Amino acid sequence: MTAAPSTSKKHRLLLLTGPSGAGRSTAINALEDSGYETIDNLPIGLLGRLLSDQPLTGPLALGLDVRNRDFSSQALLEALDLLKGVHEADPELLYLDCRADVLARRYSETRRRHPMAPDGEPSQGIRRELELFAPVRARADVLIDTSELSPHELRAAVEQHYAPKDGQSLSLTVTSFSYKRGLPQSADMVFDCRFLRNPHWEPDLRPMDGGDAPVGAYVADDPSFDPFFDSLTKMLATLLPAYIGEGRSHLMIAFGCTGGRHRSVFMADSVAAALAQQGWRVSIRHRELNRVATLPGHGPDSTADGEDKA
Predict the structure, then answer these.
(1) Which of 33, 126, 286, 297 could connect to 291 by a Cys-Cys bridge, CB 3.0–4.6 Å?
(2) What pLDDT does 290 receive?
(3) Which residues of the chain are modeled with pLDDT < 50?
């Protein structure tokens, strides 16, 4: 794996791994919200092609785990050594650690099969996996023990290490969701949009979603929309600096409607755009539409799958 000499700025290239159940998905999401391009479950053998086809233009995080057919500790460590020769990359290994008893409890709670013991007890797979990862753990540049961390605390720990130090100390995720599928587990604020007029009952609008202009115009025409939007953005302008004062580095604001397709999507997009215009760094997630976007801010002034059936 080689690259032509370059005088351009080096970009962080993060290899993220650890035992199954230690929180890799949470960490990947936190990195994505912090401005990283992320790829999860990448086969190690494709690393060379990935970097030779497209040179790095920003920070990149790669999630690697035992579910990949070509995974081995030796292959991962050899890839890490090779990446040190990529001129535009600044490679680093992040290892998420976790105690065996905590991993066993998490597998018991979720009732999932362990990838290294699909037909046996999860404890067997956990033991094998921890033994496999021992050489990787020893080479980690950063090790985060997730045994006693909640998903929110893990996210904060990842952001503390890897969020860009650009003067903005609070990153925001604005998400839409369906009440039929439950609340987003990590949401800090939840707002119910089901009082707004429902595009589902308009045959021309039903196949669309809240990102389509006709749907947005229909929802915004509800007499309740403007007062709700204005009050909410004013409230956030007061609350967000206060959260910074409390030491928070990330906040999730969630908007829900019945199916998570129309009203909540438009509301999330509208609020995210307003926050980005104020200078906040905002990530948008539409859970039921499986869409993600990022609206980069530059730091605010310190003074300042279902149908949507009602």
Answers:
(1) 286
(2) 74
(3) 1-7, 298-299, 301-310
- Cα gap 169→9, rounded to integer Å: 23
> Model-level pTM?
0.53
Q: How many CA atoms lie within 13 A of 248 on its CB side?
A: 16
Q: Specify the CATH number of the domain 11-162.
A: 3.40.50.300
CA distances for 138 relative to 22, 112, 133, 241, 308, angstroms = 17, 28, 9, 40, 50
Residue range(s) occupied by CATH 3.40.50.300 in the chain: 11-162
Whether the CA torsion 222, 223, 224, 229 is positive or negative: it is: positive
Confidence (pLDDT) at 199:
96
The alpha carbons of the chain give a radius of gyration, in whole angstroms, of 22
At 248 the pLDDT is 72
What is the pLDDT, as a whole number, of residue 1?
A: 41
User: Nearest 5°: phi and psi at 22?
Assistant: -85, -10
Tokens of 67: 């579910």
